[in-house]
Structure formats: structure tokens, C-alpha cells
Design goal:
Length: about 260
Amino acid sequence: MGKIIAIANQKGGVGKTTTAINLAASFAALEYNALIIDADPQANATSGLGLNPAEYENSIYQCMMDDGEDVRDIIQETDFDYLDIVPSNIDLVGAEVEMINIEKREERMKRALDAVKDAYDFIIIDCSPSLGLITVNALTAADSVLVPVQCEYYALEGLGKLLNTIKIIQSRLNPNLMIEGILMTMYDVRLRLSNQVVSEIRTHFKDMAFESIIPRNIKLSEAPSYSLPVIAYDAESKGAVSYLNLAQEILEKNNISIF
Ligand SMILES: Nc1ncnc2c1ncn2[C@@H]1O[C@H](COP(=O)(O)OP(=O)(O)OP(=O)(O)O)[C@@H](O)[C@H]1O
Ligand SMILES: [Mg+2]
């Protein structure tokens, strides 16, 4: 049975999409079947893997509606073995409003993903920078949530609100939702501020923070413009190695054997 991990933080630009693509690609490189759900109308995960969002009529949204699409029919293969994606497109913007009156509207993504849970080892949901209905659906569908935090000014801003939302979802919608971990991203060893954020997070969140830290690495920001996960763009880069380490840390944490 696959594990569903939502990558969420309502703060923008903290590395959610970079993490979704590269964590999923790292699992794929280790020969675990991985599926990315692009749950953001910006469709950055879709375009970052070389798919054109304008070409797809359906997104996860159409799978969440009554008489909607079967998610199995809209999964796209990527150029990489073991890595598939449910693309997004701009239609997802309207979903929040259109779903206001439907029944069990928070549980729609969970229902949609039930059909594919067995076919993958990991399903990674890339959330948008919002705590709106689509993100609530992602957290309700997920087994765990991974929270990227940028090692920058105001890193912890909004984290309290996010953790509170997670608590509400645990109590009302998804009692099994775990926190997979807090992931520090865009770490710059030369910056005192970066180091302060790391020590603050380690003090505050202890075991909740991953050992693996993602450095600021130019290859990570270049890779999407070549439609590649970093491991295919420059496998030896610090960015590629750090996401592979994260994947291994998650496998170990979940007692899944690495080979
Ligand atoms: N570790 C990193 N090193 C260098 N650049 C990075 C790193 N992580 C992310 N970036 C760059 O920072 C920008 C924001 O990253 P990303 O798109 O992953 O954030 P996001 O949280 O998904 O943003 P949004 O909230 O808009 O969805 C992108 O241009 C990305 O290439
Ligand atoms: Mg994003």
C-alpha cells in the first residue's frame, strides 16, 4: 500500500515544488514507484517535468467532482522510469469556489486517490501556497505531511498556523495524519542567518526536523528549465545528493528497506 505524503506550507517560495519533484525523483531512482500529484494551479511541478499544463484538460480537480474523471485515466508517464504525474492546469483555480456546495468536499481527493494507492510506493502531493480547500483535501488524503521551511528571514512565520491547521484536520478529518518532518531548505552554510534558523528549528521542533538539510544549490533552480529533476540534470550536485539523502531518511524512518 503506497504512502501519501503532502508537501505543504502556505508560505510561498519555500521549496515545496522543488521538494515534490526531487523527492519523488529520488524515490524513483531507488526504484520505488512514485506518483506526483500537482495540486497547485501554478502547475510548476507539471512544467518542471517537461509537461505543458495547457495540453491537459483534466487535473486532480476533475477527479474530485461527482461523476468526474478516474485518476487512473489522467496519470501521465514522465521521461523517467518509476515516475508518473497527475498534471495540473489553471482550472484548479476555480475548484475551491465550485466545490463549496458539494458533499464531503474535504474528502474528495482522498476518494480519488484510493483508486491508485496500491499502484505506487509513494504518492507525493505538491500543494499550492494556501490553506484553502485543495490543500485541506491534500492533508485529508495524506498519510503524512512534509513541511519545507526556508532558511531565511521569517522562516518560522506562519508555521504555527500551519501546525494548527494540521491539528484541526487530525481531529476532524484525518486522525491518521502524521507529520513526516520539517525540512530546512535553501540552507547557505556561509550565512549566519541560515545557521540561526537551523539551530532555532532544531531547538524548537527537535525530532520533528529532518536530519537532511537541503542546501541552496544553483542546479536545483536550473533543473526545471531543462525539464529535469536534479538527479537527471546533475547527479553529483549537492542538490541531488541532499534530496537522495532525504529519500533515504524517509525510507529508514518508515522502516522500508533501501534495497
Ligand atoms: N535548495 C534550493 N536552492 C536553490 N534554489 C532553490 C532551492 N529550492 C528552491 N529553489 C528555487 O526557489 C524558487 C521557489 O522554489 P519552489 O518553486 O520549489 O517553491 P514553492 O514553495 O513550491 O513555491 P510556491 O509557494 O509558489 O508554490 C524556485 O525558483 C526554485 O527553483
Ligand atoms: Mg510550488
